[in-house]
Amino acid sequence: MTGVREPQQERSRTTRRRLIEAALDSFGERGWHGVTVAVIAERAGVSRGAAQHHFPTRETLVAAAVDLLGEAQIDELRAQAAGLPSGSSRIERVVEMVLNLYTGPLFRAALQLWAVAATDEALRDVLVPLEARVGREAHRVTVELLSVDESRAGVRELVQATLDLARGLGLANLLTDDTRRRRQIVREWAQTLELRLAGTSEL
Amino acid sequence: MTGVREPQQERSRTTRRRLIEAALDSFGERGWHGVTVAVIAERAGVSRGAAQHHFPTRETLVAAAVDLLGEAQIDELRAQAAGLPSGSSRIERVVEMVLNLYTGPLFRAALQLWAVAATDEALRDVLVPLEARVGREAHRVTVELLSVDESRAGVRELVQATLDLARGLGLANLLTDDTRRRRQIVREWAQTLELRLAGTSEL
């Protein structure tokens, strides 16, 4: 494509994406209060004017970032799941994937936003509906990966508990590396789900 | 006691306590960056000099606050547990208490600190050993309240998972009121623990 001008629309998409990624890195490393749209623009190598054209405020950047995060997580879950065996070893692998969901830099960035949103109504109004949507999607994919029947009593709550546990494990991994302890919990949780979901799974 | 001077030691303890409580309220409401020792002193009705005598930095205040939080939580767990029936309805009540542990203003304050500590090494060095101690204590009390035998395989991990789940539910309750959903999870988790811990409990 040398010598061919990148189409305007494509350029615009690339710029947005670079700004969102720079925003996530910045919030994760420096927190909400240390970061402005100008700081993010500089990190992304985008002019301040262009940045403000795409995202007039930090809140609009956050909304786009949470969307991207949510989608990226779901995509990754699906990609990992595609390589999984069927049969009884599958549950432990799925549990491991789900319980590792919130242990990376994306969760770190999200946590900074949640902490701020707890004391900032404008940001909370942006985050709450987005989080609800991302949460529903994570739930749907987990049900699908576990191949369980949600119409059975208790199944919905066990899937929810699995995702809540994953977030709790994300917190536990925030300040120290909790990998070893988490591995034991994955094993125990997988056995628990196998026992409780026996007969509800279509594996 | 009118006319009798409050002993120096007692006065000093009261001042510390007032500063710690003002610090927790302030961090919970305004986050770490919005709060200085001077702001906390004013809120506590304590002179800036006295505040700095007790707590030269925000970090020292945080250490004292986390200690107090941890103790207050454990004391509350024990107090609530004292009124519980024995027998099979006990597990659900204990699970309810534990899964509600992180849904109040104390967790809100702690989360502000965690978020900052994720990007601030000095605060992290203060928090990590304190959190480890508070975590161990919460674990010990939960084992005691459930009357389970930790030497049995898997019991330790199930208790840990219960506390991790509790923290995840705390996060889920941060921006919206999650009480109704949590109630369903409590019921399901209590049944799960009963099943998994069958034979390990001395109830």
If you had to describe this structure to a student in words, what would you say it looks like?
- Two copies of one chain form a homodimer.
- The first copy, chain A, is mainly α and 203 residues long.
- Chain A has two domains: 56 residues, Arc Repressor Mutant, subunit A (Orthogonal Bundle), CATH 1.10.10.60; 140 residues.
- The first copy, chain A, is built from nine helices and no strands.
- In chain A, helix 1 crosses helix 4, helix 5 packs across helix 9 and helix 6 packs across helix 7.
Could you say how many structural domains of chain A there are in total?
Answer: 2
Through-space gap between termini of chain A: 47 Å
The DSSP helix count of chain A reads 9
- Mean pLDDT level of chain A: 87
Helical amount of chain A: over 70%
What is the total tally of β strands of chain A? Answer: 0
Describe the global form of chain A.
Answer: elongated
Oligomer: homodimer
Instruction: Give start-end ranges of low-pLDDT stretches of chain A.
Output: none
Secondary structural class of chain A? mainly alpha
| Rg result of chain A | 20 Å
**Major sheet attributes of chain A:** none
* Secondary-structure element series of chain A: HHHHHHHHH
Largest interface: A-B, 47 and 47 residues
Strand portion of chain A: under 5%
